[in-house]
Amino acid sequence: MTLYGEKKPPADDRPTVEVTAVNWPADRPEPEASAAPPGTPARPRRFRLLLASGVATAVLASVGAVTVWAYAGDVPRGTSVMGTELGGRSRTDAARELRAQLDRRAAELAAPLQVRIGERSAEINPAEVGLTVDVDATVAAAAATDAHAVDRLVGSRQVEPVVSVDVAKLEAELEKLVGDQGRKMTMPAITFTGTKPKVRHPKPSLAVDPEHSADVVKAGWLSGQPVTVPLVESHPATSAEEVDRMVRELAEPAVAAPVKLTTDRGSVNIPPGAIAKGLRFKADKAGKLTASIDMKRLRDALGNRLNEVELAPKDARMTISRGKPKVVDGRAGQQVDTSSLGDDLLAVLPRTEDRTITAKLTEKEPKLTAEKLGGLGIKEKVSSFTTHFTGGLSSARSQNIVTIAKKVDGTVVLPGETFSLNGHTGERGYAQGYRDAPVIMDGKLVPGVGGGTSQFTTTLFNATYYAGLEDVEHKPHSYYFSRYPSVIESTIFWPNLDFKFRNNTDHGVLIDTSYTGSSLTVSIWSTKIWDSVKTEYSPRRNITSSKTVYLEPGPTCIPANGSQGFTQDAFRVIKKDGKVVKREKFTWTYRAEPRFICAKEPGS
Fold it and tell me: Among 220, 9, 4, which residue's Cα sits nearest to residue 102?
């Protein structure tokens, strides 16, 4: 029993034409006149030809009449879809009739479809997976026929409706039904632990095939019968045997010895460890495993080795000379051409001998050329900020301030770029020239490498603040220090605390640093776009008092006078054309700094 039922074809009252084939070969002799019955006058050849022509004409006329009758309208007569006669209609009328039939059977079409996968069954709502009859496509199929088949002109034909389904939505519903009955494909892989290859053999997946499942569900929906969707096992394109072969023939010999890289500037060895990091085995969606060289990973693994054969490009830079910015040209560098290096390296890795490749050196332009730097609009001092310190330049703290100031001096921040102080200087440790000086750790001052760099951070923060540049990240100190402006100051600590600002202008930004024996100055050079940038403070509130804390005396104990705690707001007020265009609020709460005394507590 079908979903739509059956309809008996109407009585066939169409004419039947019987055609008898007549064949007179051209080389066949005319029959003798004596062959005619006695007394029958002989008919001349012309009469017989006219007779044959008349019969043929009558046959063709009959066939033509049938053709006209059968092909009246766009859809041939005798054509039906889902039990509905569409023959003899135009496509528009046929589509209208088919839609009316679908409307009459809407309840049947909307009924849940029983679907079974493995040991589980569920009902699927046809509307939720987009199961529909494509009326236009169905009518087009009904209108298509073979005009040379006479038997189809006078017979009847059933055309299956064209069914559409949203394959992605159907697959999602079927995946829910699959559940833990299925399994994902295990892709083949070859990786390295150090220089030892590690293998993962492939395993087939067990899942529904989206396209095949869609065909099964569409057919079941029309029949009104429960549907069983099979779970299909799909194997990766690369087998376990092929993985093992790739290990034997490529992965193992690849890291058995170094590869010599030669250039016009000399040669360098690529050690097995670097080869292992650069050699990658990647499987595509079909599970086909292929080998390639990741040049970025290989370069990172080589570290400074390539410095022996490469020449790094040097960016153009800008200095301040006699109160004006001046461009100093950079230079192009030479770098190993990696365009074919990966393929060349892959070619020699399976070898046990002759492991040498040759690479070309190509010119590497600097990131910032003199022409580009000169066009960034760095022409005037936009802001400047100075902080003071004691002890002269001989103290460890002052030396740390000078070290970080030199590292940042001359930095150009392009339009739209974000500057990170941690990112620019990297780790600030002994190896980078920093010394031990007081830092705040766990709420008290203790000796720590890089102490004093927070003063530079605060000075830089204020210079960018008064230049009107965008504050991205900063964190004020836990305690208030009178040498800094309250609220608008910043600490720094590698790697967790950073200071960042963004150049939110259309011009370049030059950071210029300078220092004396008692002060540090940071100036920002660019094109001035604001009339003024000023700070307005709210009164201090939530004031808390300092406590006295006695610490164990010794070389690690650093005394402090203490300070009050408080909360305060600072408003950055930016004006242009005499009007306030921005008013930004910064708020911070300082904890009361204890008065640290390096002595035993009295009475203890």
Answer: 4
